[in-house]
Amino acid sequence: MESSQVSEPTRTYGDGLSIAFELVGSPTIFGLFGFWLDRRLGFTPFLTITFAVLSLSTVVGLVIWRYKAQMRYDEAQRHAKAAARTVPPSRWERRAMELEAELEAEMAAKEHTSAQHGAVNKSVSNDAMNAIDATHGHGAEVFP
């Protein structure tokens, strides 16, 4: 079964159980190794205590690090879900958007029409101005 198919309570229970075994098992194993070395080398329980404490502090540090990483991941997931969730516009907002779109279409049509008429009017007015200038003796076209 894939990890994405495992339910949240099952995953959480499994995480908690693995952390419990790490917190108990690692210091026990390293403590037993230290006890064996103590017996072998003839020391007092110095290595037993040292290995158990080092192992426990390492495991606690790893548990804290994993917890913080999981919290950062959960926070990022929560923000991603919130960003993906959008509120649909109300009836009045939809109507306002429709009216704005209609107005923009009308303005674009008017600009297109006025641009066509402006080009025609400009060429007519330039011809008229050139004719007037020619009659007044300027001789050359002033307006192209």
Write structural notes for this entry:
The chain is mainly α. Helices cover 82% and strands 0% of the residues. The longest helix is centred in the last third of the chain and has 45 residues, at 91-135. The model has no long low-confidence stretch (mean pLDDT 79). Helix 1 runs antiparallel to helix 2. It has helices at 8-41, 46-84, 91-135. The chain has three helices and no strands. It is rod-shaped. The chain folds into two domains: 3-84, no CATH class; 90-144.
Produce the secondary structure layout.
Blueprint: H1 8-41, H2 46-84, H3 91-135
Helix pairs in contact: 1-2
Provide a count of the helices: 3
Over all CA atoms, what is the radius of gyration? Answer: 42 Å
**What's the overall average pLDDT, rounded?**
79
Q: Calculate the terminal CA-CA distance, rounded to whole Å.
A: 80 Å
Main β-sheet: number of strands, strand sense, barrel status? Answer: none
Q: Summarize the helix and strand pattern as letters.
A: HHH
Low-confidence stretches: none
Strand content: under 5%
What structural class do the secondary elements suggest? mainly alpha
What is the overall silhouette? rod-shaped
Count the E strands. Answer: 0
Give the tally of structural domains: 2
Helix fraction bin? over 70%
